[in-house]
Amino acid sequence: MRAATAAFVLVAGVLLTSSARADEAAPDVGSVRSGDAARALTSAATQLEPCSGVDLVKSLQASDPDGFETFEGAARGVVNGQGLLWRVERPGAKVSYLFGTMHSSDDQAKQFDDLVLRALARSHVVAIELPGASTKRVASELRRLVANRSFRPGGDTLRLLPEHVRPAVEARVARAGIPASVANQLNPWYLALALSRSNCAAPIQRSDPETADARIERMAHEQGAEVVALETPIEQVDALASVPDGVALRMLRDAAERNTRPEDIESTITGLYQTRRIGYLLAMRGPAWAGMFDADGYADFLSAFITRRNVTMLQRALPIISDGDAFLAVGALHLPGPNGLVEMIRSSGFMVTRIW
Predict the structure, then answer these.
(1) How far apart are CA 83 and CA 215, in angstroms?
(2) Which InterPro entries match (predicted)?
């Protein structure tokens, strides 16, 4: 299950960080949605205590060397599972680049390697998922769209869970600042999103809240490049809302029963990103993970939230890279796998080569 949670944390990051700048991505239509839910989430955010997560890959390596060796062998087999910067070219066209980012304001996420900076500097067009995602205008639009899609008129969300696990899920949701009366009126995907947020407060207030994506966008403008979008706000939220109820409910159940800690997932993602092995997430399955990472069991999630968006972004990207001199920056989990952007671009007639 944690493979699905990890993917959810990584690819939903832009929605979380953007909506947070518009007073949280809480529902705001109707008295319960605009009052109780928003106040509950805001209250929870102010009560967080400093803590830190555990890098689960490093933990496995230390606690079960044989299990880690088996896992790493499988992870190395993930198609395009290693690397963040790729050279895209074909005869008669100028070179373009594809770069995997983290939707984060963490310093380590936005300290770009010189190879990345040089590739960006050479490019006349810079395509990112959602330009202006950190601005108040776009954040407000995301918040409105999330609110419109998160409400469940029947008010029966928690009753969709098996009766014997419902109390544990209610308690876990309550710890996230959402009363059961409010949770019942929110779609499962929204509750899963809420529980994917870290329970930890930042150890210090970041002096630089700019995200990695926003930094790339700013640098593109400063060098006079044209900045274009690979997605629209409604496309991102539609993909999020398309996560099947069954998958989201399993994520809720797992968060409650296994006490899944979002901060552990975040630490694991950060560790894999820093070592340019983000595709390893797709290999987190089998005995070494004691059933907690089962990527095969969440094909519906990956199809709904990642592959669907990859298809849209590929359609927007192809004309751009056909002209060349372009730099594409997308969330890193959009790169690996047979349905990742690296392989999809390669299948579209381009030579795609890892350079970092």
Answers:
(1) 20
(2) TraB/PrgY/GumN_fam (IPR002816), YbaP-like (IPR047111)
Amino acid at the residue 356: W
pTM for this predicted structure: 0.85
Position 257 scores a pLDDT of 77
CA distance 133 to 16: 10
211 pLDDT higher than 70? yes
For the chain, give every domain's residue range: 2-354
pLDDT at residue number 315: 97
> 193 near 260, Cβ under 8 Å?
no
